[in-house]
Amino acid sequence: MEKSVTFRSSLLPWVLIAPQVLIISVFFFWPAAQTLIQSFQQQDAFGTSVQWIGLENFRNLFNDETYPQAFKVTAKFSLLVAFFGLTLSLILAYFADRVVRGMTFYRTLLIWPYAVAPAVAGVVWLFLFSPSIGVIAYWMRRVGIHWDPLLDGDHAMTLVVMAAVWKQISYNFLFFVAGLQSIPKSLIEAAAIDGAGPWRRFWTIQFPLLSPTTFFLLVINIVYAFFDTFGIIDAATHGGPGKDTSILVYKVYFDGFKALDLGGSAAQSAILMTIVVVLTVVQFRFVEKKVNY
């Protein structure tokens, strides 16, 4: 029997959601509107001289050779972070769900990285793989592997991807563990009685039932790779070497705060926000069709 709630006053629902609407308006809609307005303006670093120039910032942006490169770097980076982040966290969640003794201890260890700030995560991984003082880089040289993320673009991309995946893996792990625990154990036991091995039980029963969780985490990880990895890249590589790890959000920061091109930076922010919204809509429109609820 479905339960329904009836409000005696038509104003009460609006009063209840008013605090959340106020927070979203102040910290999202108002800055987004300001960014959109600034993308059509040209101003100095102090905002004392403002000139309306229309679409000139957008035209200059697409004539910039480094902007298409930032698109490619962002696409590569986000796909790698989402794929390895979801894959590794699902594997860890699967084995953690099978642990009987010390289950809380293992899960606590796997959750800890989420409490680390992105900039700190970038610094930690930079120290580990620094070609001069890094512990892991030292042992890589001992076995004949040349590693230098300060000069090699592929090495730098590998470094920031590993740091970003490590930082997000705890978040994914929590949701996958919760999803695995929500699957009725009777289904797994029935499949085991029928002779299905662990891999077959996971692939035919558990993984399909995890599709809502996987879809949710896919959206979250794409958004995370686009926005929340700025601190990691700024601390570890500063977008270098060259522009090999300069994703779109880092280019917005660099052009706005380093090059002092506030109008061009605002135009990039508007485009970046549009890309994320379109990607989210596409995922809900097409990917969600394969989700089993």
From TrEMBL:
A Pfam short name: BPD_transp_1
Keywords: Cell inner membrane, Cell membrane, Membrane, Transmembrane, Transmembrane helix, Transport
Subcellular localization: Cell inner membrane; Cell membrane
InterPro entries for this protein: MetI-like (IPR000515), MetI-like_sf (IPR035906), UgpAE/MalFG_permease (IPR050809)
Keyword Transport applies: yes
Bilayer disposition of the protein: Multi-pass membrane protein
Segments traversing the membrane: 12-30, 77-97, 109-139, 159-180, 209-227, 266-287
Presence of keyword Repeat: no
Biological processes, Gene Ontology terms: transmembrane transport
Gene Ontology annotations for the cellular component aspect, listed alphabetically: plasma membrane
Domain ABC transmembrane type-1: 71-283
Record family assignment: Belongs to the binding-protein-dependent transport system permease family.
Assembly, per entry: The complex is composed of two ATP-binding proteins (UgpC), two transmembrane proteins (UgpA and UgpE) and a solute-binding protein (UgpB).
This protein's name: sn-glycerol-3-phosphate transport system permease protein UgpA
Species assigned in the record: Caenimonas koreensis DSM 17982
Gene: ugpA
